[in-house]
């Protein structure tokens, strides 16, 4: 290297009890470089950037900032050096306005009025307009990300760390973000871009470091590599592609007609005149950016939220007014997005978690009394059938990894032979092999004659498993279209709320 | 019955005195809850403040030293709660109750030698001619210094919470502790300091009760004032000025109720004296049923423990 | 530096060990407290925990007291524990206890002096109903208006105390009591009397009810789906809703059960050990039962043991008061400390303490040489 890199990592290692999050990680980020950090969920990307940002201290290894020793022990120190970070799960405060949120990310914020003027100015300069007086809780996911980015830019950073920034954006919003990032690079700033989306990295970055199980397993110029070769570096094995047998769609099993629901919390989304029809053997994929009503839709289908009697029909029978237990009895089963605390109780054993939804359908309860022996056997069957890696059914749900718990949660529902299964984000935060297994299970279930609704923010996932696609935007659902022949551009427009029903008929 | 014996000027002047203990306790608890912690031990901290303030004031014959001691004592017992909930991750509801049970016992133990003693008098401030003004003089300019200090604390709390970075950080910690941690703020440290401030305020409120309002020491003398203060924070939707309004409203009810008793109102004393508790319940019902606004105002992380992984 | 690290699985060992360690630590801290008060700590601890049961001098009187005091504590604590498990905080058991006693006493006074066998069963119903009704106030307010049940149930204790005072001095006052406050002696009215079932055992109907309640709670919590839902709602409210639990029904159920049991405790007390309604009829059982519930780890069997232990501190405390002139408030402090230690040690069930190398967290400008390797 001719020039001193902006940031140089040498042998960084971070161990947690029982887990090595990072082991001997070494790479450089040059001035004005967009550097990709690639890896699967759980590869150690987040720990690594937390060390750079001063949230976590390494057990071993050194960092150098423009050749000087760099040992941040708090984010404030990292910020003072010129490092700024946009978090994957936003570090924002719903009940405070944009200006206050920005002020909280600064070490010596100017008076709030001055800051507001500055926010307006900078956000317009970078093509990310923001109103400093709006309450953050009322913003869309894309706008919330802008708050994070503006917060960083106001500190004039040299290195901007972005952790999975596009997972909450529509394709059109991604384009806007990329324009901003290229503008920053042109100004000589460096960006550490963390993602597992290969096409994005090929479009944006000139250098990539690939992490697997905490170790650097490859370095590449992503523009020279194919998405496939990058993927193989990242995953380290040839992936099992889900296979499906085409089944002739049967009779309509789930029918939602003009379903409307008011928001459930101060910053919740309302559902507006949702219409869904899913037939036996069919998989409907519902795409959309986070916070557009996914949780609410799942709640309305599971029965956690009641609606008008006729708004939801299950095999012709109105179920809108009845609760989760009665809907389960009819064969309408769900798996919510949030594994810990919604789909499963973190501190309870897998047996108890099996009882959570299986009580009546699996006859684990007789006249109100629980048959614990039978419950444990049911849990063990789920564990075995879905290859859940755990010492046994007595283990607490929180002790399982995300992928294993998700296999258990989805498996628990599938084992109960649903006629309709609704899943929300079935593979979020799940490693690639578990994700493939879950997708295969959903396909098998549909092939066996069930109707399946997959709500997901991962468009690739929907394109892989679904027969038809509908987009959820601000609580409204677009008309479904067959997945075959659907282009990314069309999907992007649908996600952005452009309905375009005229060509849907074509 | 003789309603004419109730003098409205005296009534208003004395409601400010009656309101000051719960006002102090409530403004302290507001800061605690704004930082995301629910400390149900207000009653316990108040009564510990009441007894330690009384004991020191009697020993030194100086009411102000007594109040200072109450502040320190309140903050110290609050520190027990802080250690349990912030460092040892104990359940906040249970720890708050423990604090109250402990405080009641502890104060009874310390106070047994002080029953029946008259504390040194806390002088009323003299604003000269202002105090002699008709009506207004008596209501506004005829109080001891604590009444004015409590108003000052409300104003300062409002200003600090809303207009300074420190206050913003405290609200951020209470709103979403994970985000605050990710930004590098010391969630636990902020909360421990807030809890100690709450304890200091409650302690001072308790001392005001035993040194000025009553003034004497009896076992269990707070008689639910701490719980009313907790309700007041909900009533005020976590806003400092509304705490003031609420406290004076309750002060008014308590004074009116006492006046009615004195006037020989034909309802038995017991039923009149339960009115502050019943009215508190009614107010709680009214405030909590207007949902939308409430959920906006209640701190997002209220009552949840925080444990930073790694 | 000590750090806490979350255990993947809650520790079974510490789950059982914490109450024992907490009791031992409280004895040490209590001993220090007694020493500060100028008493011999060893003698005081022995008087409180040993002599009531085993000293020849006192045991004859004290042993029956154990069940008399433990009965209401266990009965109330079992009810509270069900609610606490569901995250429903009824802390107004003291009020429900008073109202239960008042209703039962009123029932007895209506029949006085008729010697009918039905009086006692009707008093049981009245006591249970009174406690239930008093607990329904916070329950209904919570389900209808989302009002905080902690504050309402607690504030209602003060209201109940005022009603008690009004009853003792007014509408329930003994017409033959020459103007002294207090009702007729219900214990002496044989149709209403809650007599000792076995002489000198302390065993009365209230103790029987407490043990029935323990068995009921055990079956409910550990064998019945409802008990599972109670637990689920306490640990993961959203998952409970997903499982099909109706939160409002659970609130009504949990507050109802705990109120009913507290009311029953009040009924057995007024017809038995307390004998009549007086201004200071309530002696804090409703609050001490909160400590009992936690010390018993919200488990019915644990609550039996915890109830007996706290009953012992009451009796031993009285003994120490009598023998050593130990202030009665000292026992209250002692009980408060017990809860503190219990809550503090609870951390060990879910977290592991780990000794970390001291990291220079607050060091201002770290030099490259201070690298941790």
From TrEMBL, chain B:
Its main location: membrane. Keywords: Cell membrane, Membrane, Transmembrane, Transmembrane helix. GO terms for cellular component: plasma membrane. The chain crosses the membrane at residues 6-25, 37-58, 64-84, 96-115, 135-161, 192-211, 217-236, 243-263, 269-287. It is a multi-pass membrane protein. GO terms for molecular function: transmembrane transporter activity. It is found in: Cell membrane. The keyword NAD does not apply. It comes from the Bacteria. This is ABC transporter permease. The lineage of its organism: Bacteria, Pseudomonadati, Pseudomonadota, Alphaproteobacteria, Rhodobacterales.
From TrEMBL, chain C:
InterPro entries: ABC_transp_permease. It comes from Pararhodobacter oceanensis. GO terms for cellular component: plasma membrane. GO terms for molecular function: transmembrane transporter activity. This is Sugar ABC transporter permease. It is a multi-pass membrane protein. The chain crosses the membrane at residues 12-37, 66-88, 95-112, 118-141, 150-172, 203-221, 242-268, 274-296, 303-323, 329-348. Its main location: membrane. It comes from the Bacteria.
